[in-house]
Amino acid sequence: xxxxxxxxxxxxxxxxxxxxxxxxxxxxxxxxxxxxxxxxxxxxxxxxxxxxxxxxxxxxxxxxxxxxxxxxxxxxxxxxxxxxxxxxxxxxxxxxxxxxxxxxxxxxxxxxxxxxxxxxxxxxxxxxxxxxxxxxxxxxxxxxxxxxxxxxxxxxxxxxxxxxxxxxxxxxxxxxxxxxxxxxxxxxxxxxxxxxxxxxxxxxxxxxxxxxxxxxxxxxxxxxxxxxxxxxxxxxxxxxxxxxxxxxxxxxxxxxxxxxxxxxxxxxxxxxxxxxxxxxxxxxxxxxxxxxxxxxxxxxxxxxxxxxxxxxxxxxxxxxxxxxxxxxxxxxxxxxxxxxxxxxxxxxxxxxxxxxxxxxxxxxxxxxxxxxxxxxxxxxxxxxxxxxxxxxxxxxxxxxxxxxxxxxxxxxxxxxxxxxxxxxxxxxxxxxxxxxxxxxxxxxxxxxxx
Amino acid sequence: xxxxxxxxxxxxxxxxxxxxxxxxxxxxxxxxxxxxxxxxxxxxxxxxxxxxxxxxxxxxxxxxxxxxxxxxxxxxxxxxxxxxxxxxxxxxxxxxxxxxxxxxxxxxxxxxxxxxxxxxxxxxxxxxxxxxxxxxxxxxxxxxxxxxxxxxxxxxxxxxxxxxxxxxxxxxxxxxxxxxxxxxxxxxxxxxxxxxxxxxxxxxxxxxxxxxxxxxxxxxxxxxxxxxxxxxxxxxxxxxxxxxxxxxxxxxxxxxxxxxxxxxxxxxxxxxxxxxxxxxxxxxxxxxxxxxxxxxxxxxxxxxxxxxxxxxxxxxxxxxxxxxxxxxxxxxxxxxxxxxxxxxxxxxxxxxxxxxxxxxxxxxxxxxxxxxxxxxxxxxxxxxxxxxxxxxxxxxxxx
Amino acid sequence: xxxxxxxxxxxxxxxxxxxxxxxxxxxxxxxxxxxxxxxxxxxxxxxxxxxxxxxxxxxxxxxxxxxxxxxxxxxxxxxxxxxxxxxxxxxxxxxxxxxxxxxxxxxxxxxxxxxxxxxxxxxxxxxxxxxxxxxxxxxxxxxxxxxxxxxxxxxxxxxxxxxxxxxxxxxxxxxxxxxxxxxxxxxxxxxxxxxxxxxxxxxxxxxxxxxxxxxxxxxxxxxxxxxxxxxxxxxxxxxxxxxxxxxxxxxxxxxxxxxxxxxxxxxxxxxxxxxxxxxxxxxxxxxxxxxxxxxxxxxxxxxxxxxxxxxxxxxxxxxxxxxxxxxxxxxxxxxxxxxxxxx
Lengths: 450, 399, 343
Description:
The complex is a heterotrimer. By secondary structure, chain A is of the alpha/beta class. Helix content of chain A is about 35%, strand content about 20%. In chain A, the strands form four sheets. Chain A has a seven-stranded mixed beta sheet with strand order 8-7-9-12-13-17-18, with helices on both faces. Chain A is globular, with a radius of gyration of 23 Å. By secondary structure, chain B is mainly alpha-helical. Chain B has a domain at about 5-275: Orthogonal Bundle (ABC transporter involved in vitamin B12 uptake, BtuC). Chain B is built from 17 helices and six strands. In chain B, a hairpin with a 2-residue loop joins strand 4 (about 185-190) and strand 5. Chain B starts with 5 loop residues before the first helix and ends in a 19-residue tail after the last helix. In chain C, helix 5 packs antiparallel against helix 11 (about 235-255) and helix 8 packs antiparallel against helix 11 (about 235-255). Chain C contains 15 helices and four strands. Chain C has one domain. Chain C is mostly helical. Chain C starts with a helix and ends in a 14-residue tail after the last helix. Chain C is globular. Chains A and B meet through helix 1, strand 1, helix 3, strand 3 and helix 4 of A and helix 3, strand 4 and helix 14 of B. Strand 1 (about 25-30) of chain A pairs antiparallel with strand 4 (about 185-190) of chain B. Chain A: One of its GO terms (biological process) is amino acid transport. Chain A: This is Leucine ABC transporter subunit substrate-binding protein LivK. Chain A: Belongs to the leucine-binding protein family.
C-alpha cells in the first residue's frame, strides 16, 4: 500500500512517525493550532471538488470533474499546461500551489442544498480541504457559499447563473466566474432587437424558483427597454415534465415571441414541446413566431436535438471561441478526453487556476489573503477576453456570448454558433443594482475560520 | 432501572456507549492509511447519524407499532427546520428555543395533518400523507419563497440580528448553546489516529438517547400495547369498545414531533434549510431506513439510518484516483481490472450499491439489519435456537 | 372558449399518459397485491427500448474525411450508418426516421420478457411478505434499473424525435370554425391519445371477453377459490405481470417524442401514478383510467394563467389537492373495492 494522498492533515503525516507506538495524547482545540481553517502544513494542499454526480445534472457534473482533474494536472506541472500558458498572470510555476502539490477530493452534491452542504462539510472536516468549488445550480451555490463563509474557506462557484449568488446572497469568501441573469438579459436584448425588431410581444414561461425569477426579471427589463411588450408571464413548477398546457395558450394571447426561462431538463422539455406545437411555423402579427432560451447549456441542449436550431440564447463560453486561451484549453481538454469541453468545464477549470494564482500572488492560503488577491484582479487569457473580478460583489465581468442553435451542425458537439460577443461594458452594472439586492446586499467580512 | 426492564436497560446502555464513544468507533483506521477513506468519525456525519436516527425512531413509533405507513414524514422535518431557523433569525441564536420551536411547529402541523389523514387507512392513508408533504414541498419551493427562501432556502445572514443577541454589526450569528459554539471541537491525537469530539454532536447524541429512551418507554407502555393492537386487528379493538383513532393520532403527533426534533437539530448543527428536505424522496428515505434496519424493532431504524447516511457520505466520495491508489500494489493489468469492476459501484455509482443493498437485505434478511445481527449473535452462541430475544415478531423468508 | 377546448385537449393527452401507466400499476396491485415501486422504471425501460432501437438503426462505421476537420483540427471522422450501406441512403434514412414507431414491435417482446423475469425471479417470492418488504425490494430494483440505464446512456435526456411525417400540428380551430392558429394540437400527441385509447380498450376487452381474462378477474376477486377449482392461477398472474410491464413499456415508447427520455423519468412519474391509482380506487381498472383523465384535465386547467392570476401556485399542488378532497369524500377513491390494501 502506497502512501495515501487523502490524509486529513499534513501535520499528522509527519507526527505519525514519532507518535506511533508512543501514543502520546496531545489534546488541543482546533482553534489554537492553526492560523486559519485547514492550514496546509505538509507538502500537499487539498481542494474539494463538489459536483453533482447523481441526479439530472450528473453529466454536467462529470464534465466539471474532468476539467478539475485537468486543472490539477496542469497546476502540478503535468500535461501541456493548458491555459497556464496564456494566462496574463505568470505567478503559477507548475509546481503546485506555493510549492505544495495539489491534491483533491470529490463529492456528490446531488443538486440538493442539504446533500451539497453535507458533502462540502465532510471535505472541510474530514479531508482538510482549503477550498471548495463546483456545483450546477444556484440553490446549491448559495447554500455552499454560505457554509464556506461560516467555516472560513474559499468558495469558487461553478455553474450558477442566478443573480442572487453575487447579488443579495453574496459572501466575502465566495467568488463567481460564471455570468448571471442580468448579463444574459443585457447581452441578449440588443441582438434580439436587431434580429426580430423592436416591436415584439413576448410571453414568458418561467421556472417557479429563484433562478427563474431573476432571469425573467432581467430579460423582461432589458427587452422592455428595447421597446418590446411583455404580454404575460406564467410560472411553471420545477417538477413539470410536460409543458403542453403552458405552451398551448401562447398563440391565443397574441404574443409573437416565447421566452423560456427554463434550465436543464425543464428547458429541454419545454423547448421540445414548443417546437412540437409548431409554434415556429406560425405567423403572428405579421411576424414569424420566435422562441428564446436566455441561458443555454450545450450539454443539455443536446437533449433537445434538432429543436434548438435557430434559437437564440446566451452562454458564458463556448469551445469554438478562437482566442488563445480558449484554444489552449480546448486543445488540452480535447486531447485528454476526446471531445470539447462544456461551459461548465471551462468555468470550473478557470476558477481553479484563478484560485491557485491568487494564492501564489498572496503568498498564503489564508482565505482573507486569497480574497484580497482576487478582489479587483484584472486578467486576460482565460477565454472571454479581459476580465475583472470585481471586489464589491465578487462577480467576474467579461464579455458575454450570444449564441444560436446551429442550422447545420457538423458534429454532435457543434450545436451552437456564436452570434455576437457582447462587450463587457454593455453587461456591467452597479454593485447595488436593484436586481442584485440593492443597497442592502453586502459581502460581510472575510472569514479565516479558526 | 429508569423504569425499564433489565434487557431494555442493557440495550439503552449499549446504545449510549456506542453513541458516546462514536468518535473512536467510527474512526478505526489510521489517518495515513488508505482505509482512512472509510472513517466516518467527523462531526458532520456523526451528527447526521444521530439526527436521522431520531427521525427514524420517531417514524418507527408510527409505522412499526400501528402499521400506518406515512409517506410524507419529511414534511414535519422540513417544517420543524423552518420553525427553528426563523427562531434563530428573529429571537435567539441559542439552540434550545429553536429546537423547542421546531418540535412545537412540527407537532401542530402533525396534529392537523393527522386529524385529516387518519380518517383513512392502508394505502389511502399513505397517499394522503404523501399529498400533504408534496404540497408543502411545492409551495415552499415556489409561491412561499418570501417565507421559505424558495430554492436557495434560508441561512443566517449578517443582516439578521436576533432579539436576544449581542452581535456586532455585520457579524454572522452562529448557533450556540449558552455561548458554546455548535462547531467547537476537541481533537485528540493518538499516534496516527485523530479523534474529534464535537459539541454539536454530543448535544444531538444526548437528544437521541433521550428519544431512544422515550421510545422504549412507549414501546413497553400500555399505550404501546394499544398501538400494536391497532396494527394487528383494528376492528376487533373497536368491538371491545376502544376507539383506535385518538391513540393513532397521538402516535402520529409524537412521531411528527420526533421529526420536528430532528429538523430542529439539523438547523442547530448546520444553520440552513432548503425545501428539498420535504420532497417525497426524503420521505421515502426514512421509510427505507426503517425497513432496512428492521420495522418495529427498537434499534433497527437507527441502524438503517446509519447505513444509508454512511453510503451517501462515504461511498459517494470514493473516486477513480482513490481506487487506483488502493490497488497500486497490484500489477498494472490486475489493478486496472479491479478498478474497472469496482468503479461502477462507488463515487457517482453509489446509488447502484444502495439499490443492491436494499434488495439483498430484504431478500436474505426479512427482518432487516437487526435480524442480521441476531443471526450472527445466534451463530456465536453456538446455534442455540433462541427466538426470544428482541420484542419483534420474527418473520420468515417466503421461500 | 378556445382556451377551454385547448385545455381539454391537453388534459386528455396528459390524462392518457397517466391512465396508461396507472393501468399497468393497478393490474399488478389488483391481481398480485404487490406494491410495485419499480413500475416507473418499467415505463422508463420502455422509453429506452426506443432509444436502443434508434441506436441500433444508426450503428455506424467511421470513415476519415480528409476534406473536413474536427474541433482539434485533425481530419474529421464521419459516421456512416450501416443501414445506408444495406438499404441505400434514402430508404436507410426513412428507416431511422421511423425508429420510434418501429420500437413498438421491439418493445413488446422485450417488456414481456422483463416483466416475466421480474415476476418469476423476484416478485413471486414477495406475495406473502408484508407490503413494507415489497416496497423496499421494488424500490431497490427501481434504483438498480435506473442506475444501469444511466451507466450506459448517461444522465442527460436523449432526443428521440417522431417521424418527419408527424411533426407539426393540426389546426382544430380552423376545422371547428374558429380563427386559425387558436386551437392547434401536435399530430404526435393526437396519435398518443388514440394509441392510449386503443391499448386501454384492448386490455379491458381482453379481461372482459376472453376466458383467460375471466379467470384472471375471478382470481382477483377470490384467489383461493379459483385455486381450489384446480386452475393454475399463478401462471396466469405471471402473464398478467408481463402484460402490465408491456403496457407500461409501450406508454414509455410512445412518450419519447413528447419528452426526450432520461434515466430518472420513471421516478418522476412514479409518485403521480400512485396518486392516480389510489384516487381511482384500489383494485379498480376503470377507476384508474377515470382518475388518470380527470387529474390530467384538472392539471391542465390549473395551469391556465387566468386561474393562476387568482390562485398563484395552484398548478403546483392541484393533483395533490384533488387527491385529498376525493379521498376524504370517497373513502376508497372513485371506484375502489372494499378491503383492498386498506390495512
